Structure prediction request, 486 residues.
Amino acid sequence: MTSALDTFEVVGDLRAAAARTAARLAPGNGLPHPRDLALLAECEPLSAPPVWNDAAAHVLAAQLTARARQDALALGSGLVDRFFDDVRLTRPASMSAGARSLLYSSVAEYTCSLALADVASRFADEAMLFADTAGLRYRALATGAFAAGLDGDVDKTEELLRRADELFRAQGWPPTERMLVTFFARITVAAARTDAAALEQIAIDLRATQPGDGFWDFTAGMADVIARLFRGDITSALAGSAHLLHSSGIHSSWRGCRLHVVCMHADLLVACGRLDEALALLAPWQSPEGHGVCFPTHRATVLLHLRRDRELIAETDLCAADEAGHNPRTLTPLLVRRALAFQRLGAHRRALRCMEAVILLTERIGASAVPFLSLPLDEVRLLLDAVTAERASARPVVDEILSLLDHAVPAVADGFENALALGLTPTERALASALQSPSSLAEIARERGVSVNTVRSQVRSIYVKLGVNGRAEAVRLLTSSPSTGR
Prediction:
């Protein structure tokens, strides 16, 4: 296929846009113009030249970056495969080191947008190898940090972020030229550590760096929702994720963020006992290539709460069979859920094998609390202890996980488990969540599609079960910790 960039009629506008954009991809040269990015994201990609030179490399680098930043990802990894075999160009090249580095870092940014962490990491490494200026080194470090974050490697992400930030500060570049991927990388680290304060600061920094930019605002909103979740404020987190899903900003957001918000909203619905709603929300979604976001994992969370354990195993079989092609950050929680389901079904050996795989993955990428959120922690602890009884060498990793369960997870687990522990039915749990909002009973009834009398009757049942006399007292009990509220 002939690219628009190869035809005489549009050479002027598009080639000029590509040249301007390529010149501004590394910091210190100003930001690419939004109009240029839009033009480049919409046109057919460059055809591979007989011999790659700097000019052709700059055009493709500009197009790939534009597609990443404009969320024009329909061609997927096939676009990269047109030009590369692994990290090698399929045609001869006569390029400078700088042009090669810029091209490789642009492939890394594009594949990060596809959540193809392993591919992005390899290209970021190549970009660093050829980087011959501070700006190109920063770009390679920034894309590499996000790739490591997507892969779940917290230590590597932090190290690359540290180096990128030190370089950025040393060069005195304006804050507006920080790459959005560095903020994504910071979010992955803060989320792995359930660090609500760090996530709140990231949201502030995002809005301050590019005020009014839809992509940056949506990402800041996502960070805010995760922070609320980690503080155990389930009602506020659910309201925040619902706002993101239904706001106009969703049309100006990175695909990975949108998919994460869908999954978070489903998990928060689970926390409120709205299990059928969570399944319905997740039903039409398919995981992107590489499973940077894994929808079977989130459906498995709902099925685990519904005790539909055989269905959970069937739902996750394909992912479990493709461990080599599955993102390790999202494979870990999937295997935890399979382990719990196998244990409930009496398949103890298979449960142990799944949890052993979790420990091996944790040894590789580092411990995170995220795989254990919204799960029955007593069942998790029993399986971890069973693994160490058979495999003493796993004890250091298991102790690290148990420490996270004891210190990082409880604030979230309390919010997830309070209504369950108080003996409410799923319908009552959903209504109890609504009671924590400022909505009147009439407004709650309209939202739920029932009469006000039905809501009043259900509310009275909740009050009886909680042993309270009114809404304010019920809300205090529902939002208290289980140790004080039971």
